[in-house]
Amino acid sequence: MSSKVIFLLALLCVSLSPAPAAAHRPRFLAGVTGDALVQKACRGVGKYEPECLKILRATDKLDKGDSMDLAFFTLRYVESHAYNLTVEIKKAAAEPDLGPMFQSALAECMEQYIPLDDLVEDGINAMLAEANSDSRDFIDAAITSMDICDGQLQSSYEEEKADKETKSDSSPDFQIAEALKQHNEFLRAMLKAALNIIN
Ligand SMILES: *[C@@H]1O[C@H](CO)[C@@H](O)[C@H](O)[C@H]1NC(C)=O
């Protein structure tokens, strides 16, 4: 292989790597690397802590001990998961026989998920610009938007339960709501992991 080809391949690899190269990059949690970094990120994020550890351990970023790469990976993961979730919500909303209050809760969740992507993106950009406190604010706002979705799901659950004695916890509304709440909790856990790194 000619050195020119090798050079181009190397360039391609660099351009495909997930974190954009910054001239000089801040190191969060200076001195914490590898598995200790992952443990620090996932500590105290809630019941999805084991899942958090599993996901972050599975990245190929760890041996470099680069906390910024890990925060970047975590936020990108949240974006991807949140996007996938909007696809699921759209499918769920098409189910027949959903209660009207639950349908409006789903619509509200969609409205929260769309800006979520922008908030996380803004969080990433602020982090890359070393504006850590801005970055934290964006991530906090993303967490709040999931809280709003949860609140809507919860109140639709209560209203429908009060409204229709016949609706049971096994009805599709409640199953979808429960699944969505679990997803929200998982995403919040991953956002908290990013905050643990940036803080
Ligand atoms: C989102 O869905 C795509 C396509 O199915 C999948 O490759 C990706 O891993 C999913 N993202 C997450 C974070 O689960």
Automatic annotation (TrEMBL):
Keyword Signal attributed: yes
Coiled coil feature spans: none
SUPFAM superfamilies assigned to the protein according to its UniProt record, in alphabetical order: Plant invertase/pectin methylesterase inhibitor
InterPro entries, per the entry: Invertase/methylesterase_inhib (IPR035513), Pectinesterase_inhib_dom (IPR006501)
Superkingdom of the source species: Eukaryota
Domain Pectinesterase inhibitor stretches: 37-163
Keyword Ribosomal protein among record annotations: no
GO molecular function: enzyme inhibitor activity
Residues in the signal sequence: 1-23
UniProt keyword terms in alphabetical order: Signal
NCBIfam families: PME_inhib (TIGR01614)
This protein's name: Pectinesterase inhibitor domain-containing protein
Upper lineage: Eukaryota, Viridiplantae, Streptophyta, Embryophyta, Tracheophyta
